[in-house]
Amino acid sequence: MSIIAPTTKKELFARISEIIQHKEYIMPDKRYIGTGAPGLYLEDLLGLRTGNKDIPDTLGWELKFYTEKTNLITLFHKEPRPDNVIRLMVSKWGWKDDMGRLSFRHTIAGKSDRFKVEADSHQIIIRRLDGNGAVPYWTDDDIMSSAGAKLRRLILVKGVRTGQKIVYNRADSYENLELSSFIDEVVRGTVKIDFDVREAKPESKGLRNHGTKFRVSPYDIGRLYSKKDRIG
Predict the structure, then answer these.
(1) Whether domain 9-230 has CATH 3.30.70.3570
(2) Local structure of 149: helix, strand or coil
(3) How far is the CA of 146 from the CAs of 20, 118, 120, 224, 225, in angstroms?
(4) Can you say how many angstroms the Cα of residue 26 is from the centroid of all Cα atoms in its chain?
(5) Where are the domains of the chain?
(6) Residue 57 burial (CB count, 10 A)
(7) CA dist 94 to 11, 197, 198, Å?
(8) Which of 104, 106, 108, 208 makes the best surface tag, with the fewest CB within 10 Å?
(9) Cα(first)–Cα(last) distance of the chain, in Å?
(10) What is residue 58's DSSP assignment?
(11) Residue-wise pLDDT tens for the chain (232 aa)?
(12) φ, ψ of residue 146 in degrees (nearest 5)
């Protein structure tokens, strides 16, 4: 698919409107597989070559796809401090999977059955509810730099997928990310912290880390921005 990417906001929004008006697309089997296929196909329809970069996808806009069944959208990845804390969390709080590897997969929405999120001394801290141990944290600057670099302007495109058929049926733009209140939304649990890491092999020092994610429901995105508009 050889498509030239839009060069202005007006052109970008017009292209997205055309995609929504087009209704049904058939995604080729070979390239577009898995849950990320509709988002990848949308990027290709727009002529984007994004990759996994900590910068917006196009013209200062980050592009996200979701469906009615999407629970959480990943905003960005950011590992906590200090450097070895993920290894300590797996060792102390992990549980064995069916292959005998210690695994730590856990989502914290302000508070979980094991942890709570606190703001203290310009830091976001994860504390154990029932004792001491490793204390992962991010400085406020860590969070605001990651969010501000990638999410100041966001486009959410909603669609319906049936096999290789995809219909993009709605798009909303969000501007003016409220960085001053973003930390509060992490502590409140609107923005959730998601750990997904395990040992590479049973009792090994190596880890398979899928990244610590900051995630939010597509229906709560509006709490993070001061301006919202419908594109199509």
Answers:
(1) yes
(2) helix
(3) 30, 19, 19, 14, 16
(4) 26
(5) 9-230
(6) 22
(7) 48, 9, 8
(8) 208
(9) 23
(10) B
(11) 678 999 999 999 999 999 999 989 999 988 899 999 999 999 999 999 766 566 788 899 999 999 999 999 999 999 999 999 999 999 999 999 999 999 999 999 999 999 999 999 999 999 999 877 789 999 999 999 999 999 999 999 999 999 999 999 999 999 999 988 999 999 999 999 999 999 999 999 899 999 999 999 999 999 999 999 999 7
(12) -65, -45
> What is the pTM assigned to this prediction?
0.91
> How far is the C-alpha of 9 from the C-alpha of 69, rounded, in Å?
29
Query: Which amino acid would we find at residue 123?
Result: Q
Task: Name the burial class of residue 202, with classes exposed (0-12), middle (13-18) and buried (19+) by CB atoms within 10 angstroms of its CB.
Answer: exposed
What values do phi and psi take at 163, rounded to 5? Answer: 65, -125
